[in-house]
């Protein structure tokens, strides 16, 4: 399935639209600056938060669309009783008539930031996690020592890499990658963690290194990694077990959601 920006650029070949974009916010609001929706005569792509605000914005956008090309304009909305919303904040929406000729500018303006995630392991949990991450604003580098395990129907934000030995891929990870380690063997997991800690020691550019497993597994890994010369302060950079707290279901799909939520928390913290 194409992303909203791709669909917008495709539809602009057939018709113009009015782009409604969140220009600025103050206080509590349903979406932040940069959120957008494109209003065509017969369709809407994206969302600025739903509710009465979006309904009113749709109505104004369709009015402006019928009037044809014109300069962009901004409208301020208070999210209070007059809109039937209780957020209490304020949003400024920009309305802009866009056509096919605006495609390149729209691509640059609306492209969502993509955070690099390096996923080691193509097992059941790895596959489930890739499916979840496919819909999130991340760029996934999916790595395994077994080339034949990667499926063919992957989203555009997922790139597969065969690496044998698997820890050899650590040196080529995109800077500031969030690393998730869940290979098919504990021996590979240990070597990948060690590779990440070596890189972190030299470059300090892997803000999150998460390892699937139990506290018992991590206790064994800590002992072996200390024997390899890593200090406690370095070992503290590894998160194991992974996933947000309070979820105990062990099904791969559930673990994947818990891990994806934890990755999103690291993005918010950054």
SSE map:
Blueprint: H1 4-11, E1 17-26, E2 36-39, E3 44-46, H2 51-67, E4 73-78, E5 90-98, H3 103-110, E6 115-120, H4 124-133, E7 138-144, E8 158-162, E9 178-181, H5 186-203, E10 208-211, H6 215-227, H7 232-235, E11 238-239, H8 252-269
Parallel strand pairs: 6-7, 6-9, 7-8, 9-10, 10-11
Antiparallel strand pairs: 1-2, 1-5, 2-3, 4-5
Helix pairs in contact: 4-8
Order of helices and strands: HEEEHEEHEHEEEHEHHEH
What's the rounded overall pLDDT mean? 92
- For this structure, the quaternary state is single chain
CATH H level, superfamily name of the largest domain: NAD(P)-binding Rossmann-like Domain
Give the percentage of residues in beta strands. 15-25%
Q: Which range best describes the helical content: under 10%, 10-25%, 25-40%, 40-55%, 55-70% or over 70%?
A: 25-40%
Uncertain residue ranges: none
CATH first level of the largest domain: which class?
Alpha Beta
Class by alpha and beta content = alpha/beta
Number of helices: 8
Second rung of CATH, namely the architecture of the largest domain: 3-Layer(aba) Sandwich
What is the terminal separation in angstroms?
Answer: 29 Å
Counting DSSP E segments of at least 2 residues, the number of strands comes to: 11
Shape: elongated
Trace the largest sheet across and list its strands. 8-7-6-9-10-11
- Main sheet: strands, sense, barrel: 6 strands, parallel
Number of domains: 2
